[in-house]
Give the backbone structure.
Amino acid sequence: MKLTENIHALKIPFKITISPTQTADRFVYVYIITGEKISLIDTGVAGAKKIIFDYIESIGKNPKDIENILLTHSHPDHIGSAKSIKQETGCKVYIHGAEKDWAQDVNLQYRERPVPGFHDFVEGSVKIDFLLNGDDEINLGGSLSLKVFHTPGHSQGSVSYLLKQDNALFCGDAVLVLGQMPVFEDFAECMSSVKKLSEIKGLKLLLSSWDNPYEEKLIDPIFKNSFDYMQKIEKVVNSLSSDDKKDPMEICRKTISILNLPALMANPVTARSFKYFVKNTL
């Protein structure tokens, strides 16, 4: 889907295995920036390379012209196809320094953050060429450039990118989507990052990984919904974590129920997120 002269959005579907008999449909967005060369914001899950390459060819471009993979963070649904795309195109891969080890050693990531179906989502480790910090600026060739914002919370080294020429913000998973599965490593940093992004002036497009693209008039309400959702989660989990038992999975199940979220969201990934509140009440 073409969003601007420079930006295309590509929705990558995949399934999460909940149990041997149950799966859940999910999607993640890959964004393609076309200029003198082609840059990708994230690469989707394993197997997404064909979808990405087919789309690039459909708009009259050559996938061999992919010059950059700009990762928002190292989770498997974002780095899933980076290995094969890099191997085929020779492109450069960018990521924040705090995410380097998990991208370059996916087995380390799995040991430290065991996600159900992890190895189905990611082809393998990928060599990182450039490490990012907050406030970096990346020239994409010609007049196009990206400003980098360090937006931790969802993960330690999550970053967002602002394509200044289009006033388009690629926020990865930094902005928690109302009604979606709450996934974060540090709630306070997540709140701070959303606040930082909400203060960027003149945004025309908000481009999330877990949500559809939003144009200017809807951007402020999306940020507000994210704040409200996070505050509600904080209130519920804090009320439950006062229980002496403080069992993470039980807190997770009760929270998901109170928030009227799908029962499948009561899983180890969400429970890991809620441990932040339990830890901070001890």
